[in-house]
Amino acid sequence: MPEFFLPLLTPILVFGAIMSLVPMLVLGERRIAAAIQDRVGPNRVGPNGLFQPLADVVKLLFKEEIVPAGVDKWMYFLAPALAFLPAAFAFTTIPVGRGVQIADLNMGVLFAITVTSLGVYGISLGGWSSNNKFALLGGLRSNAQVISYEICMGLALIGVLMVSNFFYDVEAGQTAAVVSSGGIVELQSGSIFNWNIFKQPLGFLIFYIAAFAENNRLPFDLPECEAELVGGFHTEYSSMKFAMFFLGEYIAMVTMSALTVTLYLGGWDPGFSLPEGFLGTLISIGAFVVKVLILLFIYIWVRWTLPRFRYDQLMGLGWKVLIPLALFNIFITAVVCLLMG
Amino acid sequence: MSRLKDPEIRQLEQNPEPRVFLTEEEDELGGKRMVLNMGPQHPATHGTLRVVLVTEGERVVEADCEIGYLHTGFEKLGEYMTYTQFITVTDRMNYLSAINNNVGYALACEELLGIEVPERAQVLRVLLCEISRIADHILCCGLQAMDLGAFSAMLWCFEEREKIYDIMELVCGARLTTSYTRIGGLFRDVPEEFDGKVNQLLKGMPGVLDELETMLIGNRIFEDRLHGIGVIKKEEALNWGMSGPIARASGLAYDVRKSRPYSGYENYDFDVPTQTAGDSWARFVQRMAEMRESLKIIQQALAKLKPGPINVENKKMNLPEKADVYQNIESLIHHFKQIMLGHGVQPVRGTEIYTPTEAPNGELGFYIVSDGEMNPYRVRVRPPSIYNYAMFTQLTPGCMISDIVAILSSLNVIAGELDR
What is the rounded CA–CA span in Å between residue A104 and residue A95? Predict the structure, then answer.
């Protein structure tokens, strides 16, 4: 194979995997929800309902496309794409296996965080442009929510970077800061106790809660909030444009889980030393996928268990509880690093 | 001045001006306030209600309700139907607990006619009323959870309700619109499997309630969403004529089953739980507590259920057996007299009665006036929902849009009962 095909192969494989994971995730969500609710769930299409995602996609594609009167056409069409793309972009910097990464940017973590927060533009533009008050409220809520929880997330991330760089300094005697996701995973490999979750338990909790809010999942699903805002920001969307929002939400879930795994759960590290060569790479990819699936299961589990917050309570939790806790986490980390170094 | 002569009101009736919610300075382009139209088709209204909210951002400044989207003319229908025919209409009032309406109406007619139903019919009525009360309450609790986002809890509640409806189906063949009572008794006796089914329900129910409590009452988010939302004070509950779980959640220990016992409720040992807070949370807890009391009543009623007739002996009141009608001239005449126009149940001219019963949502009263014909002269229904809903606009100012949903679901407004 010519050399220049290799860099193309990884993106194709990774994006192909995500795009095929998402429909399965939707099916998984429906089956898990059914199990929680004492139901059977979709089991008619194909063996055990396995082809249900295909049926869903066909249904969504063939639905009538309705553009309500008075919409801001440009933004209305742009929003679904904006909701969908950033989450997929963020995946580029995530190492899915040993040496399997689309782009190991030297500030990969910052890139991922920045790009995922762009996803909110899709939601707020969708809410703004669809000429519907419920959608507008959903979009506004989403803005406020993402801004507040982004801060928690960033502050929690500082803890990880501090810990990573501290050990980096000690072990390798280097002074350059590690902000690349590949580097952070590299530092966590070898033993299960190297994982950042053990060094940053509080940080992990804050990051994971903020990830729920960032993805607009219950208990933070205020932007769509079907009980009061009908459908929230996507009330006026139908057919494939609705599917894009849907797809964006699920890809964002996968990306956020992958990011959490990368930052806190050792990334592709299976917890033991990997054999050399292709086999080791395969095992590392497997370990990564299993961890991501576990986190995705928790997403679904929480969604079908908890009620949702009210808008002011959500803000209160973000600003009055999580941000002070994240600052406290940074402080403790700094003190410990100082004492140990 | 009487209402009809007031020129201003007459003008309004002839040419109603649309209500203006926002002045020009505060309109949407000014960016200060917004009018949000919730309903008549909105997931939170659980029926067809319309609530118009004036909001400042997320905060509600003013709310206005509009009812009448499910207007059915039940009361007027009562004037054109015979006393027995109207039973089917009562099903549709509070369609979540049809039996309670059936019993309420049958009791009113029986008091009007001055007849007493046999022991077994009374016990069965109590038993089925309480089962139906559980079905109503558990659905209300589930919907309250669903409106706050806990969808799974709602489906668990629905499952239990389906089990209860299985019992209803066994008893009268219908799940929702039961039409089980007749004037002077019941439509038919319960089948043999009935006891077993009820015992099964009695065994399973406490576990389900416990599960719901651990899932919701122990949940901080759920608690925070409901505490202090839609507070109804005891005096307010009294002044606005509230009843049922909503009044009791405000500390008003008023229960028709205790204050004016009917169908032998005085012989059952049960408490009337009350709360003091009067908020949405208290109403949720109140309904959970009432379900446990209902279970107690069901248990006692099941023990009291002895074989016997289920209809009064009076052949002028209930239809004879079909086999008798074909064989026996007496029965044929009775059947004819019951069914044909201008005959049937005819209370004495000029008698009137108001009979309250304790329906799941509160006091359900039927006021019936007879003019000696086969149709009532007037059937007036006092449904609990409209009195419970009346204060809604007073509860909303200052709360968030999300709280509107929490208040609405805790009031458990049944649109079919609101607009008769």
Answer: 8
- The DSSP element (H or E) to which A173 belongs, if any, is none
The answer to whether the beta carbons of residues A59 and A23 sit under 8 Å apart is no
Beta carbons within 8 Å of A82's beta carbon, 6+ residues apart: A118, A119, A121, A122, A125
Buried b (16+ CB within 10 A) or exposed e, A259-274: bbbbbbbbbbbbeeeb
Domain boundaries, chain A: 20-62, 66-340
Mutant choice from A310, A315, A317 vs B, greatest count of B C-beta within 10 A: A310
Find the CB nearest A313 among B36, B152, B224. B224
Say if A3 is an interface residue toward chain B (CB within 8 Å).
no
Query: Is pLDDT at B103 greater than 70 in this prediction?
Result: yes
Put simply, whether B215 touches A (Cβ < 8 Å) is yes
* A178, two tokens: 């590690």
Distance separating alpha carbons of residues A151 and A156, to the nearest angstrom: 8
| pTM given for the model | 0.86
**Is A221 in CB contact (< 8 Å) with chain B?**
yes
Which numeric CATH code is attached to B74-418?
1.10.645.10
B151-172 vs B119-147: helix crossing angle, rounded to 10: 160
> Which tens digits make up the pLDDT trace of B337-378?
888 877 777 788 888 899 999 989 889 999 999 888 888 888
CB contact under 8 A, B402 and A225: yes
Task: Give the pLDDT of residue A96.
Answer: 81
Helical spans, DSSP H, in B35-181: 74-78, 86-91, 98-113, 119-147, 151-172
| Contact flag A306-B149 (C-beta cutoff 8 Å) | yes
Tokens of A136: 């507008």
Whole-angstrom distance, CA of residue B404 vs CA of residue B162: 28
Interface predicted TM-score of the whole assembly (ipTM), two decimals? 0.82
pLDDT digits (tens, 9 = 90+) for A169-202: 555 555 555 667 777 777 777 777 778 888 888 8
